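Researcher: Here's a chain I'd like modeled. Treat it as a single chain, no partners, no ligands.
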Amino acid sequence: QVQLVESGGGLVQAGGSLRLSCAAAGRIASINTMGWYRQAPGKQRELVAVITSGASTNYADPVKGRFTISRDNAKNTVYLQMNSLKPEDTAVYYCHADILPSAVAGTGFIRSYWGQGTQVTVSS
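Model: Modeled as a single isolated chain. Structure tokens:
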């Protein structure tokens, strides 16, 4: 059973920093793109940042220059360093990964996985 386990959310004042972590657990053959999404109350889930297996990154415009996504392939973990946080960054943050489980490695069938979500609240 493959799952994504997130940690690192919390309450922070505007201008502060937080670091989110997301570890993929289970029997995994390979991991392709990993990323972070967020969903604020009353809004749709939106992309925050993604990183490929080759470490290419892409960011949503509102977070460019403030957030940094990185990954440790040896630990099957993706991170999101969030600096200069603003109240509008308040949301539930979800980790996402495209994973090839070991159980179906021969098929090459990559599956999409989501974390349980972690709350980030930025006070003004």
